[in-house]
Fold:
Amino acid sequence: MVMADAERQLRGILPPEWRRLWFRMVKKGRLLSSLSQPVVADEKYLWRKLLDHDPRFVLCSDKLATKTWVDSLGLGIMTPRTLWVGTDPACMPRDCVGADVMIKVNHGSAMNLSHQAMGGDRDRLVARAASYLADDHGRARGEWGYGAVRRRVFAEERLFSGRELIDLKIYTFGPVIEQIVPIYRGQETTAAIWEADDEGSLRLSTRRTAVAKQTDNRPLPEITATAIAAAKKIGAYFDHVRVDFLTDGAALYLGELTIYNLAGRAHAVGHLPDAPVTRSWDLRRSWFLNAPQDGWRADYARALKRHIDARATGNRFLAQVPPIAPAVFELRYEDFAPN
Structure:
C-alpha cells in the first residue's frame, strides 16, 4: 500500500520526465518501470530528480563552488585558474577576453564560450554570456541542484590550447568506480567506454558513447590512475557522482562534478539491471534515505530502505559499497559558494 501510494505521488511530480522514461523503457523492450522501487540506472536518475534534493547537489552543480571544495580536500589535483568572477558579463575586464581564456557560467552545462567562437566580437560574447546567465538551466527537466546556485559568469584559463585535450569522465558509486569515458578532443572527437568487469578491472567496451561516432581503442592514459584515486575520495561522499577531469596525458585538472548524467540517463544501458552503472548504485547512501522526511515520504523512505535491504542480501556489488558516514551530509554549499 505504501509503495503503491508512493508510485502515484512520484508519477505526478514530473509527468513529462515520467513519460520520457516510460518511452525509453518501451523502446528497449522493458515494459515495466518503477519509480517507487527503482532498480535500473534510468529509474534511479529520475528518482534523484523527484525526491533526492540533497543540499550538497547545489555545491556539485556550481562550477566555482566545486573548485573551491575540491581544493579544500587536499587531493593534489589542480583546478583551472579563475581569472574573474562577476554578475554582469559587460563588466568583464578587457584582458579576460582572449585566446587563452574561456568564459563560463557556473550554474549550467554546455555553456562555455571562447572569443574565437564569437568571431572576436566582444559585444556578441557579452550578449551570449548574459543569455546563459539568465537561463534557468535544468528546470524543465527537474535537475534540482542547478536551481539554487548563486549565478555568476566567470573567466577561466583555457587548458592545453593547441594540444589534444582528454576529458576523463569517471562514474563513482561511493568509492567504487564502475565506468570511465575518455573523450579525446583533437582535430576530431573520439571516445570510448571502459567498464568494470565482475572483478572490478576496467575493460574496453564495444559500445559507442553518446558523444562520438568513432570508438577510440587506445589504452587509457597513464595519468588515469591518479584521476581514479582522487575520484574515489570525492565519490565517497555520495551514492553516485560523475567526476570529470581534463588532461593532456601529463597534467591533470578537475573539470566538474555531474549529478544528472546526460540530463538524467545512462546512455544505452540505463534499462539494464546488470549494467555496471546500475549494480553498485546503492540508494541507501542517498540524502533522502538518511535525512528525516515528512508525511508520505517518511513512510515511503522506511519501506524503500527495507526493500533495498532485502534485494541487497547476497548481492556482492551492493555489499562492496560501504554505508555512508553521517558527517558527510554536513557539507554546506554556503561554505564554498562564490561571493
